[in-house]
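NAD-dependent epimerase/dehydratase family protein
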Amino acid sequence: MNILVTGSTGQLGLALLDQFIHSDCNVRITSRGKPDNANHFNWVHSDILTGEGLEEAAKDIDVIIHAATSPMKNSKSIDVTGLEKFLSQLQHIKHFIYPSIVGIENIPFKYYRHKYEAEGVLKNSLIPYTIVRATQFHSFVQKMFLSKPLLKRYFIPGDFKFQSVDTGEFAQHLIGLINVGPQGRIDDFGGPEIMTLGEMAELQIKVNKEKNKVISLPLPGKLSKAYVAGRNTNGTRKTGKVTFEQFLQNRRFY
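Structure:
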């Protein structure tokens, strides 16, 4: 079975390569830039924004794990339009595995809206697929909110809720779907615990023995309300085992 991982330089893509590196799978990887461990795989340059290299990357491939995404820039062009064009070249694909995000239809954020549109594009295609949503990665929450204290203080929206998950665990879950076959939309993959951002900040201070303080600042708006309400979580799907504390103790960034 020939497997293609797109977005091989991204956070999830690198975690997938880390899982595949010692496997017997025939894995090809593709991205705009070449990842550091590309020598262990057959790397093909491609660009989902322009379509360059995608046909070559997908040649003779059976299963695709589509880790390519662009949350900060050109998300509509890459995650929706680019995906649609990519799928039009994949009539031979037996299984298209699409990682998505928990709660995207309930959170008023442009990138999430585009991820939700992308799910619809895949569902309306003729490609056999599996869509699996995950909660936010531990490393994402830490980097976004807890990596740059100001004047020895974390100024954060402390009431935001997260059910963060280990990137490597989710990568393992995606790889496990390869032999199962296409299932459509399946159950979410959530982290083992739901915490407020304030609790996560205090935990980091304890684990790292920091002298920083936490200053919780409530934010206005619908986006803030969605995170305070925990619409990015799924308490019925505490699938992951690695806690945020364990992540901090054994930190590995992708």
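The chain has a mean pLDDT of 95.
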